[in-house]
Every structure is written in C-alpha cells, then in structure tokens.
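Figure 2 data, in text form.
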Amino acid sequence: MESLLVGSFQKASSPLSIPYLAELTSLHCCSNVATHSFKREAFGNAGQSYTMPLRLKLQGRTSMNVRCFGGRIVKSNSRESLKYRVNSASEQSFESEPLKNPWRSPQHALDAFYRFSRPHTIIGTALSIISVSLLAVEKLSDFSPLFFSGVLEAIVAALLMNIYIVGLNQISDIDIDKVNKPYLPLASGEYSVTTGVMIVSSFAILSFWLGWMVGSGPLLWALFVSFVLGTAYSINLPLLRWKRFAVVAALCILAVRAVIVQIAFYLHVQMFVFGRPAVFAKPVIFATAFMSFFSVVIALFKDIPDIVGDKIYGIQSFTVRLGQEKVFWVCICLLEMAYAVALFVGATSSCTWSKWTTVIGHTVLGLLLWNRAKSTDLKNKVAITSFYMFIWKLFYAEYLLIPLVR
C-alpha cells in the first residue's frame, strides 16, 4: 500500500502566477534586505507560522528564491517595480521548509498528530456513532456491557479509518494546503510524505484488522465503503481524485456521512450486538434524511475558505464555479430547510417530551444559524473558517437531538 500511495502523489502541473497570487496579497517594497526574500504573515494553529520557499523569475533578470508566510508578500528590492512569474521548471510548486522537528518532544509530536487527524472530523464521527447506536436501544436493560463494548469497537475502528481518509487527503493535497491550510503537518514540512504514508497505511490496516476481529458484517461494510470512497476522493490516479468534480465529491461525502454512518452503524448494534432483525424505525429514517442535508452542506461549505488554492490547482468546486457568496447562502438555505423539516417531524410526534424537545431544540439551532450567517463577513477568510467550524458544532448538536426523536 505504501508504494502505491507514494507513487500516486505527483506535483500539480498547473503553473502558479504571481498576478494570480496578487488577487489575495499586496506587494510592498522592503529595502536593506540582503537575502532577497518574500515574507508572508500566516496564522496557523496557536499562532504558528510556516515557511514556504518559492522559486520566482524576474523578467529580464536571474531567478531568485523567495519565502512566504501566508498573507502579505513583501518584495526585497525597492528600487524599481518588477513583474514576477513562477518558474515553471522543477521548482514550480510550493516547497515546505519545516520550522521544527515534531518528534523532538512528546508535546510537539502530539500537537502535530492532533492537527494531522483533523479533530473536528474525529469528534463528528464519534458522536454520530454513539447517537445512531442509541437508536437501537429499546429498553433500559439494553444498556449492557455487550452494548458498550460493541459501540466502543465500532468507534475505534471508524476513527482509525477516519484518520486514514483525512490523512490521505492531506498527502494528496500538499501543494494546495500550502496555500489554504499551511498549519497542517505535511504542508508545513513537519511530516514528510513518507511519514504521512506510513501513518495512513498503518491506520487503514489497523481499522480493517479490528473490524475483522469483531466479526460484524455491517461494521466491515462500513469500513470498506468508507475506504473505497475516501481513497477515490483523494488519491491522484487515473479515473480517481473525485474531489476535482464538485457533484461527485459531494456525493462521496453524503454517502459516508449521511448513509454509511446512519445505516451501517445502526445495523451493527441492531443486528450484530443485539441480534435483532433489521427494522428501520422513524428515528433512523429521520437521521438519514436530515444528515443528507447536513452532509451536502459540509461538502459545499468546506470549499468556501479554500477557494484560492482550489483555483490555482484546478479543483472545480462549486465555490470556484459559482462564487463564495452564492454557495454560502445555498448552504444556509439547505440547513434552514432541514431544520424546518425537523420541526414538522417533532410537531407530529405522539410522544409529548420528544415533541417539545425536538421542536424547541431545532428552533434554537435554526435561529442561531441565521443570526450567525447575517453577521459573517464573506470577504474575511478567518470569519468564513470560523463559520465553517460553527457548522460542525451544529452538526454535533444535531446528534445530541437525534436520539430524542420518537
């Protein structure tokens, strides 16, 4: 697997021009700089900054190396205004220069792995499995050691696969992430490609091994389908790298987050743990339908903060094709529609406590979403990224409400 993965990560072929970069950055002269360097101010996790050397060629002059930190580019020669273009030879892409060795202490190693694992997806996966597992509970005696061990096995196997998927995506997107997410370990140079491949290969193997040892058919199918779709989404092989195509990319995320998680993990508990026949009750159908809306929103919204790198490297996301504002409000409308449907489902419930909890809970979430959306500055990447993480918090909150639907 390692040789297959390493062989598939090729440099992006499209040239990157400074006129395009100037769309985001402004050039400023800076005299008395002997090293001919560009500087960009980047803000990663916890204020960390990362260096990304560029090989540029001045028109009519020799090549020079530049360094950028992700925001403002400063030109070292103040005596004349020059135009720049990226050298399209072997050094056309951003190359990262690590600022530190992540293995020098346990704290740094944990911090690097924490960023590599994309913790917001880890939390979402764990909460979703717990939530849908509770839908299979019919009586108090179902809360047995068998239930808890079955749920724990499913969570661990799914988290291992989750890290494989997000890690593979980072390995495939190193150049793009140096523009969009320079704080990630591969983009910053803290991890080498070999290290990344070793991590994702190990976690995929461990995930399948655990699923095989558990012996649950629904769990194995969930891991296998997630592996196939996650690989096809990211890996740069012929007919694959489906993230390049907006509709296919959205369908991949919807299939995993909306269908596989709800159905497969519910069946894992219902059939394998409890030994009951597969019965899709109202809460399971509601969870699948609601999370279909939510998964589409996540698939669309995740590309809004990443529009710059996606444009540069030819990722035809809906944001690139339609613009940030249109996609933003499409996402808001889809979520508000989902909350309206949830209100209707809650209002028709025959269970009084479920009715009021569902109605009040989704009303509050819908209002919070609308108020936050109106106050978000769509020209500010920090604000957009913050709103994206707010959507994940709504995602978490929904999984707290789903077990209460009756």
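Caption note: The first helix runs from residue 2 to 8.
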